[in-house]
Amino acid sequence: MNIIKTAAGVSACFAAGLLLAYLNVPMALMFGPIILIIIAHRFNVSLTIPKGTLTFVQMVLGTSVGLMFTRVDLSQFDHLLLIMLIMVSCLAVQFTVSFLWFRKRVGWSVQESLLGAVPGAMAAILALMDHTGTPPQKVVISHTIRLIILIMLAGVVVGSDHPVPPPADIPPQSLVSVLWLLVIVVCGYLSGKALEKINVPAPFMLTSLGTAIAVQSMVSTYIVFPLPLNDISMTLIGMYIGSYFVLFPLRSLLRNMVTSAQVVLINIVLTALIAFGASHLTGFSFPMLLLSWAPGSMEAMTFAAIAMGIDAGFVMLNHILRMLIIQSVPSVVLYIQERRSK
């Protein structure tokens, strides 16, 4: 009976996402479930989230990002090391400003401020909160508001005159590709379980990402990642986020949304200043660097780059490397802290 109820809830949320996608709403498969869960809660209807959701989402995102990383030709970019150093500095500025804002200005706890300050990577943050037992409501709202603002800004930057870019050509799925994908999943899951036993936070994202990079680098077969898995993962993240939105009274929800929007806008201004200076230093265009270092939403920024005629490969490379850092560093830091405390 629970399985049927869970399947019905996921199906309803997926249908809500498809409806928003039909209306051309960005990230519809995530925002659809959020809206549906909030509406259902008002009518005292609860939609059950499947067990193992975070593990599934970690493996899907880790594998897909790892496979994307191996398909970017790093040799085509000049001054790559300098650009990466400035990008890491930009990440540090974004994180520090956000942490101080949440800790000093808003009064969040240290753990909430740390997780709320991480610039992007919603799935990694959800997994880290689940591991640390941090109250997730305020952190989830903060990251959701950041995502919404970035998507809106990307839409403003692109404008309505730009045509929607055609989807990238993806080779057909082959039996060999499926077998290699199964190897990545099995190795990523087993190594993730091993790390989980020694209390490494969000281990499945790290292990599936590393396994995907290693396997695709060693084999000549183009490993195709099934797009429906990304759609299901996005739906489950939306359900997870929506379940925390309903826990706040309306006044507290609005207050947290306003403070989160303020810190996002401050970070965008700081990112623009850093990108402007880096543009003069390296010769890269200012819009390209701004889209590359915006605090989150690789999909929205890459779409904006394609529509504006900017090198989307460079923008995607920066966001992939940002995700590698964001997904890895917090897990390692928390693991070291736990070891020291013991």
TrEMBL record:
The keyword Oxidoreductase applies. It comes from the Bacteria. Signal peptide: none annotated. The keyword Oxidoreductase applies. Keywords: Membrane, Monooxygenase, Oxidoreductase, Transmembrane, Transmembrane helix. Pfam families: AbrB. One of its GO terms (biological process) is regulation of gene expression. The chain crosses the membrane at residues 12-40, 52-69, 81-102, 140-158, 170-192, 204-225, 231-250, 262-281, 301-321. GO terms for cellular component: membrane. InterPro entries: AbrB_fam. One of its GO terms (molecular function) is monooxygenase activity. This is Putative ammonia monooxygenase.
